Amino acid sequence: MALDVRLIKILASRLVRLALVLLCVAMVTFGLVMLSPIDPVDAYLGPQMAQVSPEQRALIAERWDFDASPAVQFGHWLSQLLSGELGWSHIYNQSVSEVINQRFQRSFILLGSAWLMSLLVGFALGVIAGAKEGSPLDRMISGYAYVTASTPAFWLGMLAVLLFSVYLGWTPTCCAGPVGVLNQDVSMLTRLHHLVLPMTTLALLGIATITLHTRARMIALMNSEIALHAFAQGASRSDIAWRHGLRHASLPALTLAFASLGELFGGSILIEQVFAYPGLGQATVEAGLRSDVPLLLGIALFTALFVSVGNLIADSLYPLIDPRMAQEQL
Amino acid sequence: MRMIQPRLAAAGYIGLLLIVLVLLISSPWWAGHSAAQMQFDARLMPPSTSHWLGTDALGRELWSRTLAGLRLSFWVGLSAALLGTLIALTLATLATLSTTLDALVSLLIDTLLSVPHLILLLLLAFALGGGTQAVIIAVALTHWPSLARILRAELFSLRHAPYVAISQALGKSRRFILVHHLLPHLIPQCIVGALLLFPHAILHEAALTFLGVGLDPTQPAIGVLLADAMRYLTGGFWWLGVFPGLGLLLMVLSIDRLAVQLRRAL
């Protein structure tokens, strides 16, 4: 009973912290946009800016309160935000929440599948490598992990397109479906065909982090008294890896996977750009390049929420791994 | 023996990297200024003995453009890493002064870490209007939090070290303790921290430039070269994409290995 109350308290304090961090994200991102040398009226008008008279510009500025002080504008924006109104995206001519909703649905398939793949493959490779430190297999796997950790994500995507799409012709070069076909008419199989290359490239980068982390855990386990005891009972290395390693290292790998959602999302921006995949990442770049301020702010807040929830889950998993941490937090 | 081995390895790495860097930085003198020189009779040539890494769509030598790009990446990455380390050290030190400041710094760290780096970079590039200086500042501003967190934890654990307690008992001022005890202890960590930030900074600069919001597209930056290569990818001009990226990978990998070796040695 007492434990329940403490758990609720911990959860409540975490949620308050989450709200505080999100408020700060809103302030920082809004402040950055205010700093921009790009004139908000020009950004709003886009290519039509040459056809608008100074009187009309003044009207636009008045309509959107561009002349008010930054604090007043922030207040307006925040109150709109709290009522669920994220604003209007002028490059997509849709409300920001609609753009984010549509785009995220497509990105979610990419992000989710790449996340799962990097977790499973990364964990398996880490266990294999760490079970026998210094073996040829370990050298190969950790060498691979070191190299991918230093590889630019978009370059890996380019190489993949070059090899599998241009030379081998196995996969399409772009997009989430065939060009000129309506989204709802694309079959599941075609979708998967378009997804497989971006997903694999995105996963390759996440695999490295999880592999190295799991490998370090496994090496520590193999040098521990648990392993010594099992060796004395006649267990082999693979026995120990299978019986103790899986339990010992799986939760940390899962925690790390939740804690690195930000990197995953950052990678997806680049990968979506290379594969012309019409997801949230591509919309982010478009918003940045074409000064769509409401969309840029909306995406920044949305991803901050996404990453923070990931961190929250990771933080909540820690006490499960190590009960001593639960004691410390109380 | 166990202590000597990593140090020897680190020395080897430093030597190797220094040779590469001297070659890289001195390349304008021995490689000439061919990075911008166009040869219209030799456009999109594959690698051969006369064009080592091939040429681009304007007949410019890819090897000299790649070298120029790596040089640019190196300087931008180094400046961003140093600036980021300086910010991290300053804010970590500020955090030790009072609990309010500490709470503020921690909140700032949490805030910046909760937005994906690349989105924050896009926002910063938007706010600062692009260009080399803007990229350096943007990369520095996004990369300090993880190092600041480590330095802050280190400073907090040092506060209870015996020699600090003795110094306090002897009536030394806070500033004296900070300058004479705490900061010298942090210098190796700052060096390693800067070196660990360095490859990240290079990769993020290249990513920003590739997306079109980083360095000026008229400069031969690696991101610009790769964005150009994207347009010729489906035509099978593989060398345009492969070599600049490979050069970047090798540079990032060697700096990263150096940082890891150095951390082990210190």
TrEMBL record, chain B:
Chief place where the protein resides: membrane
Keywords associated with the record: Cell membrane, Membrane, Transmembrane, Transmembrane helix, Transport
SUPFAM superfamilies assigned to the protein according to its UniProt record, in alphabetical order: MetI-like (SSF161098)
Pfam families listed in its UniProt record: BPD_transp_1 (PF00528)
Record domain ABC transmembrane type-1: where: 70-259
Transmembrane region(s): 72-95, 107-128, 182-202, 236-255
Lineage of source species: Bacteria, Pseudomonadati, Pseudomonadota, Gammaproteobacteria, Oceanospirillales
PROSITE patterns in the cross-refs: ABC_TM1
Annotated source species: Vreelandella alkaliphila
Superkingdom in the source lineage: Bacteria
Topology of this chain in the membrane: Multi-pass membrane protein
Gene Ontology terms: biological process: transmembrane transport
UniProt KW Membrane keyword: yes
Keyword Ribonucleoprotein: no
Family: Belongs to the binding-protein-dependent transport system permease family.
Gene Ontology terms: cellular component: plasma membrane
The protein's name: ABC transporter permease
Localisation: Cell membrane
